[in-house]
Amino acid sequence: QVQLVESGGGLVQPGRSLRxxxxxxxxxxxxxxIRWYRQAPGKxxxxxxxxxxxxxxxxxxxxxxxxxxxxxxxxKNTVYLQMNNLKPDDTAVYYCxxxxxxxxxxxxxxxxxxxxx
Length: 117
Prior knowledge:
By secondary structure, the protein is mainly β. It contains no helices and eleven strands. Strands 2, 4, 5, 6, 9, 10 and 11 form a seven-stranded mixed sheet that branches. The chain has a four-stranded antiparallel sheet with strand order 1-3-8-7, with no helix packed on it. The model has no long low-confidence stretch (mean pLDDT 93).
């Protein structure tokens, strides 16, 4: 059974940090494309960060460059999103997404991040 389980969200003050985790199972994690998306109330979904597992390269939305870092631990089948210097505009539900080499796409249930003083 395929699962993507996000964790690590919460309420933080502006300027603080959070690390989100996405634990994967049921598909070949190490060869799948892994992405973090977010969706804020009333806004469209935004691709935040991409970790191209096979090649090891990453890419980020302009809005988070220099502040967010995507990484992975293949031994734990887990991808992380380290978020530093958080801003109120980062408030959203964050989703982990995986696309396997044969094109199957999976989503996690999401984790809420709220940045507020």
